[in-house]
Amino acid sequence: MANNKQRYIWRDISLFDGLKTLPKPMAVITQGERVVTMTPMDGFDESQADGCHDMGRGGVMTPGLVDCHTHLVFGGARADEFEARLEGASYEEIARRGGGILSTVYATREASEQTLFNAALPRLKALVEDGVTTVEIKSGYGLDVANELKMLRVARRLGEALPVRVLTTLLGAHALPPEYENDSDGYIDLVCNEMIPAAAAEGLADAVDVFCEKIAFSVAQCERVFKAAQAHGLPIKAHAEQLSNLGGAAMAARHGALSADHIEYLDDAGIAAMREAGSVAVILPGAFHTLRETQQPPIAGLREAGVPMAVATDANPGSSPLFMPTLMLNLACTLFRMTPQEALAGMTANGAAALGLKGQGQLHEGAVADLCVWGIETPAELAYAVQPGRLRQRVYQGELTHGR
Ligand code: NIG
Ligand code: FE
């Protein structure tokens, strides 16, 4: 915990507050865990800086980044599949012949909790060193009760090892494990009747996710998972409309999902359902890029409907082996024509909303002091250039964890 008396001051900051860039250079003071002063420089009374540690002048301040969709815990690697795709195989074909997600399942089951932890730690460090202060980590490569819980335990431990808030998501319905070949309803029974209750009983899951797709689970099966999750008081979200339009996002929205993620094939009815429910659209340009997809998510339609859009890495060994959140800002703009402001809101305020942390991922007086200061001049530069090393300072819960 930050020392209650510790006060930091930044002057002449260009500030993106999580939703917008403020028009004037700002002064920002934090005390202990909180932002206590955020005021334009031209009205700043210097006596407020008394007793503050001087953190410098200039640069861009943003909320700490929120990466609301990752699969950071996994065994093995899938470079062979990467090569196969370059030679023409599709993600779906690879999955149908037992590769893809399942190949990571074998490697993850094989690995001990400690091995998984050791492998995931540098991945999480990469995110933290690129400005992330809140991250979601999914299970989904265990696909049985013991291995799903093992993954969630690793995710919890990661949050204790580094100065970052980790939210865990049970993704038992990610793929059909080989033991249940030809019995996908039987596997959904296991997810609903054993996995969700066990994860809830141990307090290991903050939410429940599903993969609603032809190569994964049907809309009806995903709906059963949602009902079981909600019976245990767990919020829900979905991987939906990534490779085809099954209507999973609309179904998830009808159940009050926090978010629907990927959504390249989302149609107008899906957009309307998400708007109605207040679900966040999580845009994952890393997977689109890696899989060389061509169907664009309906950004203009989402924008017009006022559906909040988040942006995340989807960091995983198959569809998005990309562990650099600021690269996603760039890809969201370049590939999907999101504006730099939208992309930034997507990785701050809207990323938080996608995790059920509405009102977080924002900077204002009274906010928790999770923030980054970047060595650039305007917030848009964060999305414009892809350049490691720009993070000048990172503050997590009022404590300086990077820079000086
Ligand atoms: O978000 N779409 C499904 N699941 C992951 C990919 C996981 C994998 O390929 O290992 C995703 O893209
Ligand atoms: Fe994913």
Automatic annotation (TrEMBL):
Per the record, the pathway is: Amino-acid degradation; L-histidine degradation into L-glutamate; N-formimidoyl-L-glutamate from L-histidine: step 3/3
Residues binding N-formimidoyl-L-glutamate: Y141, N316, G318
Claim: Chloroplast is one of the keywords in the record: no
Cofactor(s) it depends on: Zn(2+); Fe(3+)
Query: What are this entry's molecular-function GO terms?
Result: imidazolonepropionase activity; iron ion binding; zinc ion binding
Q: Where in the cell is it found?
A: Cytoplasm
The EC number on file is 3.5.2.7
- What cellular component GO annotations does this protein have? cytoplasm
Please give the Pfam families that the UniProt record associates with this protein. Answer: Amidohydro_1 (PF01979)
- Which Gene3D superfamilies does the UniProt record give? Metal-dependent hydrolases (3.20.20.140), Urease, subunit C, domain 1 (2.30.40.10)
Recorded hits in InterPro entries, A to Z, give:
Amidohydro-rel, HutI, Metal-dep_hydrolase_composite, Metal_Hydrolase
Which sites bind 4-imidazolone-5-propanoate?
R78, Y141, H174, Q242, S319
**Sites where the protein binds Fe(3+):** H69, H71, H239, D314
| Principal location | cytoplasm
Cite the cofactor comment: Binds 1 zinc or iron ion per subunit.
This molecule's function is given as: Catalyzes the hydrolytic cleavage of the carbon-nitrogen bond in imidazolone-5-propanoate to yield N-formimidoyl-L-glutamate. It is the third step in the universal histidine degradation pathway.
Question: What NCBIfam families is this protein classified in?
Answer: hutI
Q: Which family does it belong to?
A: Belongs to the metallo-dependent hydrolases superfamily. HutI family.
Recorded protein name is: Imidazolonepropionase
The record lists the organism as Halomonas campaniensis
